[in-house]
Amino acid sequence: MAGTGTDSPLRMPRAAAAGLGLLTGSTGGLVVTSVVLLVMDGPLFATFVVLVLAGLIGFFFTALGTDILRGRPWSATCGVLAGVVAATSLFVWYRSNRIEEVWAVPYDRPGAPEAVGAWVTPDLAVRARADLVTAYRIGDGSVAWTWEPPGRDTVCAMSTAAHDGLGLIGHAPAGRPCAATVALDLRQGTTRWAHHDDATEPFTAERFVMGLALTGDVAVVRHGSGWRGLSAADGHELWRAEAGAGCRPAFVDAAPGSVVAVAHCASDSGTDRAAALRLAPGTGAVVTRTALPVQDPVTRYAVLSADPLVLWVGESEERGTRAVLVIDDRGAVRTTVPAEADDHTLLVEDFDPLGTPTFEARPLPAAVVTRGLLIAPAVKPGDRHVIHDRNGNFFEYDGRLVAISLDDGTRRWTSDLDDETRGLTVSDGSVWALGRDELFRIDPADGRRVRTLDGVGHALPVGLTVRGDRYLVVAEDGTGPLPPVRALRPDFVVF
Questions:
Q1: How many other C-beta atoms are found inside a 10 Å radius of the C-beta of residue 338?
Q2: pLDDT tens, 134-169?
Q3: pTM above the 0.70 mark?
């Protein structure tokens, strides 16, 4: 008992010195980090409040406890160091969840055409407007080259992917079918070869129907009543594939080792029948042919995955088919995932619930496929909110990501984002979803948020590409409020 009474007077000053030192170090660290934030981000009310409160609290308690700090210097020093470490950790945590802009390209002139497609390669971000294609270096955003369609033509089609420094671009006069194709060398911005479809029927509605594809060393273009496989190196013809008697080509896309085409065929009833064809890239031979539940001649399609083949079918008619079809190796439809469910609507073709596609010449699907799952934004009744501001009224939607099994069409998980999805991609085994103000990293296994980054600020759908700690964003509208292309990264990369 005597020992306890002797130690207590010593422990209390030590604890008081350590606690006061901790408070001093924490408030001092908050003052310093607040000043740093004001320098980095400019004047912000919240940061200014933290600066003032931390300064007043730290000064008040330090002034009252000067004798205690002097009496126990080692305890006080340990407390101050602990407080500084705590404040610094808080600062690093906060900034590691903030996004900073690495570079941004200049705005387009007012009234400039919107972008109609984009590619991102390991070295370049290529943004195509109707009148101009521009390649930006990923390292610093500088312009590598520009390319213009010949004459008064405009860009009307693009291959989904660029491969080995080559991309396909279709061009035509405004309002005319997209009949001319060029193979664009992405290293130099020059035309490697050109092709023209002289047999294209004059259907204005088909102007933006996808008719270009690139897989390995084979380019596939629509030609007359079918498709032609051309050498990616020099454009010479390798094979021809016909859509079939009474049929015309409506769509083509490709992935490594696979070409997927859709043919529309006139039927006796006057409506169109449709079939999805899987073509061998090397010969053009039809590997499988799958009947599609389609009658609308201007149906939009998107290949979400080549292995397994996952095809989006979106008719424009009110009661038309709008579903994701999973097609097996024999050409049978294994699973059908309707866009409209009992309690939600999947956004597969585009990010806008009203059905406006992102990028006309190279439409950007709103859904991705990974680990046997279809992952797409979904909206429910009651998600829509009317926002009133000085610019008038507009709609915003609360949203979520939904994962659907490709095996049986059942829902595996839902990840509530409470935000509209403006971009979606898969990288490094994760799903990345871009909201209005935040970038979410989602674990595809269970929908868990792995990370949330603040400070994005995108009000419209964009093309999103994730490369390590670098996030590339390509916008349709380059006139503002955000740049046409910009590179983002976290303020601090936390491993």
A1: 12
A2: 999 999 999 999 999 999 999 999 999 899 999 999
A3: yes
